[in-house]
Amino acid sequence: MMLHIRGKPALMLASILIYRISHTQCLTRPPANDASTNCSGVTENLSAAHATIRSGESADAKGNVFFLHIPRTAGRTYYFCFLKLATPPSRRCEKSYDVLRLNSSLADCGLLGSHDDLSVLRFLPHDTAVVTQLRNPVDRILSAYEFIVEVAVRKWLRTKPGKKPKAKRTSTRDVWPWSYLVPWMEEDMTRRRARPGTEGSPGADPYDNSLYMPLAQFVEEPMVQELLHNGASLQVVGATNYTHWEDAHAVRACVGGGGLGRAQEQLQEAAIARLETFAHVGLMEDLDGSILSLAASVGLKLDGPAWKAGLDAFEKREDGRVEQVKPDGDYLHPAQLGKAHQACVARARQKAVRRKAESMRMLALPGGGHVEFSKASRAALDPALIQRIRELNAVDEALWQHGKLLHAKQLQEHKQEGRLASVMAGKNTREGNAGARERRGSDELKRRLQAHEQHSRRKHTRSRAKSSH
Ligand SMILES: *[C@@H]1O[C@H](CO)[C@@H](O)[C@H](O)[C@H]1NC(C)=O
Ligand SMILES: *[C@@H]1O[C@H](CO)[C@@H](O)[C@H](O)[C@H]1NC(C)=O
Ligand SMILES: *[C@@H]1O[C@H](CO)[C@@H](O)[C@H](O)[C@H]1NC(C)=O
Ligand SMILES: *[C@@H]1O[C@H](CO)[C@@H](O)[C@H](O)[C@H]1NC(C)=O
Q1: Ligand 1 atom 14, closest CA
Q2: CA 109, CA 91: separation in Å to the nearest integer?
Q3: What SS3 class is residue 329?
Q4: Pairing status of strand 280-283 against strand 322-324
Q5: Which of 2, 153, 166, 286 is spaced 20 to 30 Å from 58 by Cα?
Q6: 293 CA from centroid of ligand 2 (Å)
């Protein structure tokens, strides 16, 4: 079974022109200046933008899916190793991580995944279901920092003779936000390399050493404010630095600087309201449960078919449109979706570990020895720095907390409706007394969720009162 894509032709995006949005070209504008921005308009603008774009609340009977990929949330596991595998080549939109390629995609494509924010929905059919995955914002920022360092170091790996870049693969350096953050980090490293040992702390602390920008400095940089802090919330409302919404820069200018002031609260409300309309919200902290919930939300079964990469299934015509020249059947995976997913995840993890080790070996400390990111080094981070990161991402913290509730609720609903059983065993257990029993169980869960919500709202009000003195 594929992604419940029935009835009308999927994304009617096909069309005439090749459309390659280069965000840096189309939307470059000077960053708004806090002092000159009237921040009381943020809510109005956010709700105005909300009025014109909407997300589908369920993939059922609709079929088009947009995976709103918040960077560093295990999107690979979600998208490449699940949604994409579950979708035959003819239904996949052209890869769009570096630039959006909707107009050059197949007419019938119904699965898009990218780092685009919600504003991309203006190019998609009205009933497109949005699915996303959230993560503890402190972990997300740490992971982004480590990733940026890792990729920046590859600069020296890359220039090793005999290393050719692989064709057809999208380079991380072309993918927002790494397209800005990696060259920036590279520059910093190059500078330090030219004068070894003169900057930063000696020693092998991976978050504070002389080889690259320390974490404590990184999180305070305007570049990181623009591209990472509260990035999940900004992406969910469609106001990132990579947006198709022209007025988004003013929103970012108003919510920068951390904490929960009025503008941040408005963003938080808008993000939570928007999240509620998504067809599925997963949590990186419960990856397995999230994949099951995702499958149930978009109507996939673990014992259903999977399809391999279908790169040579397509040919580009003169006018830029893509034509399928080999049938989907040629790409059927020998394994069922669940097995194919697991194999894909295992392969991707191995590769990530290998690449990370390979990169970090390039970083030799002046006095000898190497730095390495590890669970232990994370655990040893200064609690005050962690607290600072949390504060700079206060809106995302609230969104993540809400995401946890939504995830639990969605899982429970899928269970209650028999969809989880159907995902796992291919059979439907909706009927009978069991259903009523589960419904009672779910009423209980709902009560608990409401109690929890009230509790966290009270807590939130208290901490807000504290943070505004
Ligand atoms: C996005 O951020 C980068 C880096 O700060 C900046 O150069 C660029 O102009 C920004 N783009 C938009 C659309 O604001
Ligand atoms: C700021 O915007 C609000 C609402 O958009 C408006 O009522 C107010 O007059 C504006 N203030 C300034 C100083 O421009
Ligand atoms: C709101 O949108 C208007 C134009 O639609 C823009 O001029 C203004 O800067 C925006 N204000 C904020 C705070 O986003
Ligand atoms: C696709 O092409 C049409 C014009 O043919 C254009 O209006 C639209 O903005 C383009 N972009 C996307 C993302 O579909």
Answers
A1: 241
A2: 4
A3: helix
A4: unpaired
A5: 286
A6: 43
Give the DSSP per-residue string, 211-222: SS--HHHHTTSH
Give the other-Cβ count within 10 Å of 425's Cβ. Answer: 12
C-beta of residue 245 within 8 angstroms of C-beta of residue 49: yes
241 lines ligand 1 (CB under 6 A): yes
Q: CB within 8 A of 373, min separation 6: which ones? A: 146, 206, 356, 360
Given a contact cutoff of 8 angstroms between Cβ atoms, the answer to whether 384 and 207 are in contact is no
DSSP of 86-128: TS-GGGBPPP-SSSB-STTS-TT--EEEES--GGGGGGS-TTP
* SS3 call for 81: helix
Residues with CB under 6 A from ligand 4: 13, 15-17, 19, 100, 102-103, 123
Structure-token pair, residue 166: 């692989």
Residues in contact with ligand 2 (CB, 6 Å cut-off): 38, 40-41, 44
**Could you report the per-residue pLDDT of 284-341, keeping only the tens digit for each?**
999 999 999 999 999 899 999 999 988 888 888 888 778 889 999 999 999 999 999 9
**Sequence-ordered list of residues with C-beta below 8 angstroms from that of 336, at least 6 positions apart, any chain:** 302, 303, 304, 305, 306
Pocket test for ligand 2, best of 34, 38, 254, 262 (most atoms within 8 A of CB): 38
Cα–Cα dist 210/201, whole Å: 5
| pTM for the full predicted model | 0.82
**Between helices 394-416 and 287-298, what is the axis angle to 10°?**
60
CA-closest candidate to residue 404, choices 283, 239, 235: 283
CA 358 to chain centre: 25
Nearest ligand, CA 100 = 4
CA of residue 287 relative to chain centroid, distance: 13
∠ CA 297-352-361 to the nearest 5 degrees? 160
Domain range annotation of the chain: 23-430
Q: For a pocket test of ligand 1, which of 21, 23, 148, 180 has the largest count of ligand atoms closer than 8 A to its C-beta? A: 180
Q: In what side-by-side order are the strands of the sheet with 280-283?
A: 111-114, 65-68, 129-134, 280-283
Tens of pLDDT, residue by residue over 120-164, are 998 888 788 999 999 999 999 999 999 999 999 987 766 555 555
Instruction: Give whole-number Cα distances, 255 to 69, 178, 239, in Å.
Output: 21, 22, 11
